[in-house]
Amino acid sequence: MSFSILLSVLLAVPAAVAQAGPRPSAAPVVPFHLTIDASTLAGLPRRTVSATDEHGKTAGYSGVALHDLLVRHGVPANETLRGRALMSYVVVGAADNYHVLFSLPELDPSYTDRVVLIAESRDGAPFPSGQGPYRLIVPGEKRESRWVREVTDVSFEVVTLGGARRRAL
Ligand SMILES: Nc1nc2c(c(=O)[nH]1)N[C@H]1C(S)=C(S)[C@@H](COP(=O)(O)O)O[C@H]1N2
Ligand SMILES: [Mo]
Q1: Mutate to test the pocket of ligand 1, among 99, 135, 136, 148 (most ligand atoms within 8 A of CB)
Q2: pLDDT digit string, tens, across residues 70-115
Q3: Ligand 1 binding pocket includes 144 (Cβ within 6 Å)
Q4: Does the beta carbon of 148 sit less than 6 angstroms from any atom of ligand 1?
Q5: Which residue has better confidence, 12 or 103?
Q6: Looking at the DSSP assignment, which residues form a beta bridge with residue 60?
Q7: In Å, how far are 31, 106, 120, 159, 163 from 168, measured between CA atoms?
Q8: Which is it for the CA torsion 81, 159, 31, 29, positive or negative?
Q9: From CA 138, how far away is CA 160, in angstroms rounded?
Q10: Are the C-beta atoms of residues 102 and 156 closer than 8 Å to each other?
């Protein structure tokens, strides 16, 4: 091997490593709490999803993807969703103090194609009072318990482990 070939091989190895780049570092996990109203949802893209409720009725629901709202507030998404962020979760609360929980990967488009929606309408019509103005729609779920009626707030949190696992995070 000539010196110039040897040199180019030696130079190419670190260059290739640099090009592949270090893995993106895990994003910080910063908890927050949001009230859901027209101003919180303003400016976010509107999407429509088809979903079938527990009674077998399929409808077109339109609104804002819960994940789009979370991303706007800085949650780790896609390749930065790893490390401590894998222990984060989202709680959706309602007017009657009902709450449901999602782990962040359940909502992330690099993990799932399912779009969980903060819906504003069903088949083009606003929800009746007692359900709206915002209702969570969770397509593809056999039970409807997470289809929160009268959504009021969303919070992003990270698990605190106790006992033997306390030092894991
Ligand atoms: N705010 C709120 N949302 C809720 C509930 C609730 O108690 N409070 N119950 C859930 C459950 S268990 C079901 S089965 C569905 C029922 O939705 P429906 O009344 O439109 O059939 O709402 C879900 N969303
Ligand atoms: Mo239910």
Answers
A1: 148
A2: 999 999 999 999 999 999 999 999 999 999 999 999 999 999 999 9
A3: yes
A4: yes
A5: 103
A6: 50
A7: 19, 22, 40, 11, 10
A8: negative
A9: 26
A10: no
Record the tokens describing residue 96, joined without a space: 């009657």
Query: What is the pTM for the complete model shown?
Result: 0.86
Q: How far apart are CA 138 and CA 53, in angstroms?
A: 9
Nearest to 119 by CA among 154, 140, 150: 150
* CB-ligand 1 contact for 150 (6 Å cutoff): yes
Q: Ligand 1, residues 142, 149, 152: which to mutate, most atoms within 8 A of Cβ?
A: 149
Give yes or no for a cis peptide into 31 (omega within 30° of 0): no
Q: How far apart are CA 136 and CA 166, in angstroms?
A: 33
Distance CA 9, CA 166 (A): 47
User: Is residue 68 lining ligand 1, measured as CB closer than 6 Å?
Assistant: no
Token pair 């399912």 is found at 114
Cα(3) to ligand 1 centroid in Å equals 73
Q: Give me the half-sphere count of Cα atoms (radius 13 Å) on the Cβ side of residue 86.
A: 9
